[in-house]
Amino acid sequence: MAKKKQSLQATARKVVTHTTPRSVVSEQFRTLRTNVNFASPDQELRSIVVTSAAPGEGKSTTSANLATVFAQEGKTVLLVDGDMRKPTTHYTFHMPNTIGLSNVLTRQATVEDAIRPTTIERLDLMTCGPIPPNPAELLASNAMGMLISDLKKRYDVVIFDAPPVLSVTDGQVLANKCDGAILVVNSGSTEKEMAAKAKEAIEASNSKLIGAVLNNFELAKDSYYYQYYGNAEE
Fold first, then answer.
1. Cβ atoms of residues 183 and 212 within 8 Å
2. What pLDDT does 190 receive?
3. How far apart, in whole angstroms, are the C-alpha atoms of residue 100 and residue 90?
4. Which of 89, 115, 185, 232 is the most exposed, having the fewest neighbouring CB atoms within 10 Å of its CB?
């Protein structure tokens, strides 16, 4: 029982942009937000998929923190757990996962039933809901396309935490239905070949690849950036 509790605590990723907004890492997420805002001058990016090549590369942490900095900017934001195989956002935000995306797509619940406010102002969450037997089919359905259109009318930005694109097809399917995709790459562990294949998979889905996030990259303490921002954690 103790091991299970420790496992759940490890899954509850820290939303550093909320807990320590002045940290170097938080500043990097704000830079990411700026880059996303300027990524498509001709089309406003309203629905964004965050994915990775393989599990454990930080895509869920990235999606939660990116959603937070957009909310801090003053936009209304919805974070949707689109990983209907290994959902984690309910752990991160300490919420139940009894009703969520899977319930809405199977018409067992309304959108209003599935959306919950978080402790972060202007940021709402739609968890995965009960894990379905056919995640890819649900994400590829017309109901999913209609849901995204509906959510974009309700929120300024909708961010989907999607499964790794090289593990299952879910990420590609979801990227195809959204305005753009962000690929998270883990520094020191993601092989170049895998990153290249993930990039190709996203592009093959006819989705716009906004860019990539290099996760867990440590700045040298003598770098100009590190010296400028320091270690402020307040």
1. yes
2. 63
3. 10
4. 232
